[in-house]
Amino acid sequence: MPADSAVRVVGWGGVVGSRYWMALAAAALLASALLPPAPLRAQPQDVTGAYDGEIGSLEATLHLRMRDGALTATLDHLDPAAPWMFTCSDVHLAGANLTFTVPSVHAVFSGVLNGSGQTITGQWTQKGQSVLVIFSKEKFVPAAKPSAVDGIWLGTQQSAGVSTRVQIVVRSDASGKEYCTVDALDLYYMDLECSDAALRGNEFSFFLPTGATKFTGTLSADGNTLSGNSFVKVIEGGVTKVISVPLTLTRQTTLTAEKPRPGASYQPAMAPVGADQMQQVLAADLAGALKDGELAPSTGAGVSIGVYSHGVSRVFSFGAAKPESIFEIGSITKMFTGLLLGQMAAQKKVRLDEPVRELLPAGAIAKPAGPEITLLDLAAQRSRLPSMPDNISVANMDQPYADYHTADLMAYLGRRGVANPSPKYSEFDSLGFGLLGVALADRAGVSYGQLVQDEIAGPLGMKDTSVTLTPAQQQRMLPGHDEFHGPAKAWDSDALAGAIALRSTAPDMLAYLAACLHPETIENRSLPAAATLPEAVRQSLKLRGELTAGMVVTSGWLFEKATGNYWHNGATAAYSSYAFFNPSEDFAAVVLLNTSPGVNGSFVEILGRHVHQRLAGKPALALGN
């Protein structure tokens, strides 16, 4: 379906249109699920309730609840113009010490409850920067006599082909003010906070900021039924409309549990699938996802896939995408930056062991007394730099990296220094690749984007791989979506371009992967840079050190010993990507999606691994819906 004809529903009946804090996710994000909170035995002290605080200048409410004997946490902000809500993971309370993580924004909170449990004081750490946060418990005094709508309500809503059980918990305080939360039990969105809840006569209404949805219903004479409608925003053909979706709620005596989260399941193995057969096989495997899952018309999502196997290449697409659609590739940009280092080393323009300080403006960074960070340290993720510098401003949520310039990076490094007495491999290194991109561009005397064009994209015939797109290319860039399938903006970047900045297509990325498999085929290209590119590719794929058991770092790529795959993924606020190639099996694939990873994990990574398993003739991860 063309992108401009897709119908996308924003609300709990379809998808939730949150887009605010997802822009804070580090470009180094390894796509992963928002994990369910870790089980914890009930504590003697009752810490459940809502706690208000500020993270920087942003108001936030922390909700602590006990579910099935486990402490859970959610964090939200209810500004209707820009709402957000996160499910917290790894929630632990040991004595008075409370910790939790927010995986989608790579944040960690560690705090201490005071003796009465009325405040939680601690540090919020994100992108290498920590701020003091004090959460104060809301003083809720329940009404002496519950209102007519107080209690638990349950119904089922159908919207855009998606059905979910909706659970609403309503309570009123001593002043008569109503409060409520919403659970979309079959979509894993729990404890969504309402605002503007009110009972006027027998009419009950509330607004759900996280889903941009309003509900209005009429209470039955016996007080056991709320019959009404939710008013949901719909984006159709680029025009925002509001539609009415019926919803009838019935009073319940107990809470209903959310739908059990499915574990990994597999489809049976088939004979190894070649590139020329893959589209037909995936069309069947993705039938559920295309009907009412991650690629359903209501989501606006589209995926472009490129597959290479034994000299045969195929590119195809599903959902809202076309084979030539352009996507952000996020952290896969790092592979290009690692290859640029190999290319400039092969051209004798830099040395792998050259200190990065020597490529930066003279006098910007002091020479340390001992060993210092080299170019190879940056490419091999062993510089010991944090994932992100601590002087990034988060004032512009839609563009967290656009205003971070080389001068800011130099100011950070001037304080931090470039000593590296004991190199250590790290998983996330957006800062390192951003710095490497700046250093190589400075040595070449051109911008990072121009350097990629001159040294890699041009020689390989990659016409749509760039930092900055032409107007014609912008028309082919598929609109991006956040983890709830709401609209999200593409990221611009400056000093961190070497980590996250590139846009590309499936055909271009497949050409890049084929060159990684067969660098000898590059030598006959006409551009001068092609002469050294084969050597650069081979250098960039050398195994440097073990990151985790079975996972080895190269200059950007990760090598998985169990499969023989070189692979990497990428994610931004609006896109996700996955690419791999396997020299021993002579196959490769890339998967590009216009949706960020979400609460049910990274669909693009599941699909990418599924493609590998089909190529290898192994049982394949079920794609389902």
Number of domains: 3
Determine the structural class based on helices, strands and strand pairing. Answer: alpha+beta
CATH superfamily placement of the largest domain = DD-peptidase/beta-lactamase superfamily
The oligomeric status of these chains comes to single chain
Low-confidence stretches: 1-44
Mean pLDDT: 85
Query: Which value, in Å, is the CA radius of gyration?
Result: 26 Å
Strand content: 25-35%
**What separation lies between the terminal Cα atoms?**
18 Å
Helix proportion:
10-25%
Strand count, sense and barrel status of the largest sheet are: 10 strands, antiparallel
Q: Look at the structure and give the CATH class of the largest domain.
A: Alpha Beta
Describe it for me?
With 625 residues, this protein is an alpha+beta fold. Strands 1, 11, 12, 13, 14, 15, 16, 17, 18 and 19 form a ten-stranded antiparallel sheet that branches. The chain has a nine-stranded antiparallel sheet with strand order 5-4-3-2-10-9-8-7-6, with no helix packed on it. It has an eight-stranded antiparallel sheet with strand order 22-21-32-31-30-29-28-27, sandwiched between helices. The longest helix is centred in the last third of the chain and has 15 residues, at 430-444. It starts with 6 loop residues before the first strand and ends with a strand. Residues 1-44 have low confidence and may be disordered.
How is the topology of this model organized?
Blueprint: E1 7-10, E2 49-55, E3 58-67, E4 70-77, E5 84-87, E6 89-94, E7 97-102, E8 107-113, E9 119-126, E10 129-137, E11 151-159, E12 162-172, E13 178-184, E14 189-193, E15 195-200, E16 203-208, E17 213-219, E18 225-236, E19 239-252, E20 266-267, H1 275-285, H2 287-292, E21 302-309, E22 312-319, E23 327-328, H3 333-346, H4 375-379, H5 406-416, H6 430-444, H7 448-460, H8 471-476, E24 480-481, E25 487-488, H9 497-500, E26 503-504, H10 506-517, H11 533-540, E27 545-548, E28 551-553, E29 558-560, E30 565-571, E31 576-582, E32 587-593, H12 603-616, E33 620-621
Antiparallel strand pairs: 1-18, 2-3, 2-10, 3-4, 4-5, 6-7, 7-8, 8-9, 9-10, 11-12, 11-19, 12-13, 13-14, 15-16, 16-17, 17-18, 18-19, 20-33, 21-22, 21-32, 23-26, 24-25, 27-28, 28-29, 29-30, 30-31, 31-32
Helix pairs in contact: 3-6, 3-7, 3-11
